[in-house]
Amino acid sequence: MHLQINQATIGYDKILISNANASLKLGDVCLLIGNNGVGKTTLIKSILHQNALLEGEIFIKDKNVKDLSVKEIAENVAIVFSKATIPQNYTVEDLISLGKYIYYPFYFELNNADRKEVSNIIDDLDLTQYKNTPLRNLSDGNLQKAFIGRALTQNSSMIILDEPTTHLDEKNKIIILKTLRKLAKEQNKLILFSSHDWRLAKEFADKIWYIKDKNLFSGIVEDVLLQHDELTNVSLFQVNENFVAPSIKSPQLQKEMLCSLLQKNFQRDLSSFNFALNDSTWEIFHEQKLYKCESFEEIVKLISKLH
Fold first, then answer.
1. pLDDT, tens digit, 9 for 90 and up, residues 166-203
2. Each residue of 261-293: pLDDT tens digit?
3. What percent of the chain has pLDDT over 70?
4. Which ranges of the chain does DSSP label H, i.e. alpha helix?
5. What is the pTM of this model?
6. What sequence ranges are listed for the domain ABC transporter (predicted)?
7. For 259, phi and psi rounded to 5 degrees?
8. What is the CA radius of gyration of the chain?
9. What architecture (CATH level 2) is domain 3-231?
10. Residues 119, 93, 179: CA angle, nearest 5 degrees
11. Distance between CA 236 and CA 253 in Å, rounded?
12. Which of 70, 126, 201, 248 could join 205 in a cystine, given CB atoms 3.0 to 4.6 angstroms apart?
């Protein structure tokens, strides 16, 4: 395995993750998920040996990370944190080119092959029109893509990204995730990225690491999701304590959308309602009566009227 975690206990003055065991190989795309404060970023820093383990070991290419120099870690792992310092007066091209620094002396000039690679990455990330734009003038989303571009030019065998899609709209989120998966499969890279959105796993990840109750659950995406109801159940979308969900029979996506809609609009018990999606029509049963709605807007109006 390229990355191996053995009986690792992770934290600072308190334990965040206890006795963790997990592994990833080159070509894997792994999503790291868990609530705020459970230790996702601390785990990443432990892999980079920026945070010492309380117990256990972490290996990269069969070498204990505590025995690797900063340069050796940089050669093996490219990292993008969710909050990064913006280099003053750098353009997009400058920042992305900076990923080559580990292969050159402090003052360096890229060769033609490196320049071509930087240009290709800028194109892949849909940043061509911003190539010469100062970083301070970029939107949060394009700035995040530029930092990801820097990690890609580093050409490390492993890329770790901490919340890489936080500031991105759907279009740019898909560009980033498709680019990462393409890298993993075509260039045999190991990609580990964290996110709050577990649904990304079903589309883009092979493996999942889920931190809960100081445990690290790892494995094939579908296996881990089905072992934890909160990762597939609509209760994930709970937004108020007074809401009691109705019975909903529909495909999972529509079920999630309906439950989210109802919780946002009705802070009360809706257990007397039964919903079923028949083709594109929602059939709603309430007090022995059947109602039909063609849209979520119609559902909100109906429930407001009946309840």
1. 777 878 888 888 888 888 988 899 999 998 777 777 77
2. 887 778 778 888 999 999 889 999 999 999 999
3. 93
4. 40-47, 70-76, 92-97, 112-124, 140-153, 170-186, 199-204, 221-226, 252-265, 296-306
5. 0.74
6. 1-238
7. -65, -40
8. 23
9. 3-Layer(aba) Sandwich (3.40)
10. 55
11. 13
12. 201
